[in-house]
Structure formats: C-alpha cells, structure tokens
Amino acid sequence: MAEQQRIVIGGGKRLEGEIPIQGAKNSALPLLAATVLCSGESVLHNCPHLSDCDSACRILECLGCRCKREQNTVTVDSSVISCTDIPASLMREMRSSIIFLGSVLTRCGRCRMSFPGGCELGPRPIDFHLAALREMGAVIDERHGYLECTAPKGLNGARITLSFSSVGATENIMLAASLAEGTTEIHNAAREPEIVDLAEYINKCGGKISGAGESTIVIEGVKRLSSCEHRIMSDRIAAATYLCCGAITGGELILTGADHSGLRPVIAVLERMGCSIYTYGKSNVFINVRRPLTSPGTVRTNVHPGFPTDAQPPLMALTAVAGGTTVFVENIFENRFKHASELVRLGAHISVEGKVAVVIGVRSLSGAELVATDLRGGAALVTAGLAAEGTTKIAGLSHIDRGYENIEGVLRSVGADITRK
Ligand code: EPZ
Fold first, then answer.
1. Using CA atoms, how far apart are residues 330 and 339, in angstroms rounded to an integer?
2. pLDDT over 90, % of the chain
C-alpha cells in the first residue's frame, strides 16, 4: 500500500508546537538482535512503529522467538531458538539484518544467512563484521550468496582493531563477545550513542561491557545473560530532521524526549546558520529562527561525535534556501546524494561531484512531484516540500516509513499542510 501512496504537502506553513521524539531506529534494531542473547522474556519500551522494526521482529520469529507489540512496548521471548537460518527474503527486507549474526552465532554456535543486499547508499560491505568474528574463532564460508557460519568450539575473546569505526561491526562484535569465552577488546570502536544504549541493555542482562561510547570497548564474556526491561533511547536523527523542518519554515518548535548530547553536532551547525536553539530540562530542545538563515560553510559528515551522515540529507534541504553557498563532504557513504537531483526539481541549486555536493542557496523553492529513493533522502524531500511554494507530492513512502513514525501526522500536529493519500 505504501508504494502507491504519496505524501502531499502544501508548502509555506510555519511550524509551531511540540513534537515528542520517537524511539531510535538505530538503537531498536541492535537491541532486538540482542534479545537473542538471553533465554527469557525481554521488554523493550519506546520501540518505534517502523517497518524496519517489524522486519527485525519477523527475523526473531523465524529464529523461534515470540514477539508481541503493545503500543510502543515490544516483548521478545527468546527462551527457545529453534532455527538458526535466516532466509534471503527476510535478509533482503533490511540490509542491517547482519546485526543478527553475532548474537545467533554466540548463542547457538551456528548461523546461516544470505548476504544482506546492498542498498541505495551503495554496496554495504560486511567485511569488518566477518573479519572480527573469524578472529573470535568463527568459521565462515561465503558461497552461493550465503554465509554459513559456525563456532564449533564456541567463540573466544579477541583483541580486535577496526580499520574504520563501523557502527554495525562494533555492535556485532559486542553481541558476539558477550557470551564468548574470555575477554574481547574493540579498538577504534564506533562511539555513537546507540552503542552506549546497547551496552546498557546487555549489562542490565548481566553482561560485562565497559568503555561503550569511547574508542576502546572491553567485553568480558559471561556464561549466560538473563532478559530484562529497557527503554530505548530517543532517535537523534528523527530529532535532527524535525529541527530542520522547523527551521526551513521559520517556525518555532519544542522537541520533547530528545537526547541532547546526541544532537550536539547537529545543533552546532544549525546555530551557525542562525537558528536559536536551547536545550532545557532532561530532554527538551527549543528551536526558532530569528533572522534569515545563512550557510554553515562546509559540512563534513563523520563518525560520532562528528556530524552524522544520516542528518546530511535533511540539512541539505535546509541549506538549499539559506543565503550563501554550502559545501557538503560525505565521508561515510559513497552514494548518499541521490536526494540532490530531486531537490533540484524543486528549484534548488546543487551540484554533486563524487563525495562533494555544492549547494547555492536560493530565495525560494517551488512544489513538484518527487520520488524518495532512500530513507533519509526521503526525509530531505519532506523537509524541502514544507518550504516550497505550492504543492509537493512525494512517492516512495516505503523508504520513509522505515525510519520515521507517522511523519505526516507529526508534522501536521505542528501546523504543516501535509497528508498521505
Ligand atoms: C549504521 O549503519 C546505521 N544503521 C546507518 O543509518 C548510519 O548511517 C551508519 O551506521 C553510520 O552512522 C543502523 O544503525 C541500522 P557503518 P552501518 O558500518 O552499521 C563501510 C539510517 O539512515 N563498511 O558505520 O551499516 C560502509 O560501507 C542508516 O538510519 C565497510 O566497508 O554503518 C560505510 O561506507 C543508514 N565494511 C561505512 O563503513 C563493513 O564491514 C559506515 O558503515 C561495514 C561498513
């Protein structure tokens, strides 16, 4: 159904009001994989209603777990893992399904899954994941598009140095090492806030992880983990997206349940553009725009605590109508400017050369018919449509629904003229 539907936006409405921020997709997915480590019933609160979370639950059920969702609480009973094969159909639904490899392998001693597909951002290699698991003793055969993984004598702790601070590889190693024999060190580990959330859950289950959020993480393997309750952190990328939506309409928003620290790199750039942003209380962020926005200069995406690549597309939409020229350097993914050509259809002045995109701000955009080709690129089109004069129609909603819970309902609640039909 999402394929035929489109989001229709009547641009030019100033956003004003309060937005409660959804749970983090990029924390929910590794946490759902982590429930496989415990033989019991885990309860995850603040789990967003997203198609990616549904895909992860389908994988859990294929493994033999029982999943139940009540509103934003997902309960996973992983007492019995009756299958260790994840079919290609489920692997293709979500390329980050590779995150299940570490937990299934360390719990069951074997795992078979098809190679996760590439995605719109380019090939999504998993060499760091496989190399690390092999260092821990896994035997992994890659043939006919399948990964046949076994750990005949269980996994052993290892000293692993990542050549790149890969988020998924760091998470997979943490999951595998939690039940391995001995201690694992991860050097040059990813420092994203979602890594800290995962470590907090595993430690609540009886795990022994230290250093999460830093470049060196130490995981002491334990014999067993018992399930627990956990509240998933808030989604910093959804929050960043809604800040861009507020700014592009010259509006005034309060985000509630937002994670300040995870937003710091984004807030710094928005303030450079002329936004006034205040964080207050435990988790509130206020934004308004007091003067015409100007370019933040050069924006380089980087691993945390650098500027997050996932916030690059919505920020690009905002810079399209800011005064001056903005240079984006995309250092994380090799093909993450596909939204640029769609923004140009709205009248943006953007030229892309490899990993660099140059945006020359224009006074206004005008509505057009657009197609989203990936999750955050789709969010960029929605952001731009809110400011474009006239009507903007956006197809390809299945991409957007992977990561944003009811995006049109959220934006309509703060004054946007936006519907899905
Ligand atoms: C996670 O993807 C996020 N996804 C991505 O969010 C996010 O953009 C990315 O981290 C970077 O922050 C989830 O958490 C589910 P990486 P992941 O491993 O783990 C290369 C979104 O929109 N690489 O840090 O796949 C890879 O090709 C999504 O919510 C290898 O070369 O990211 C990429 O260029 C998009 N070999 C770079 O590293 C590997 O084995 C970053 O990848 C693994 C990765």
1. 13
2. 91
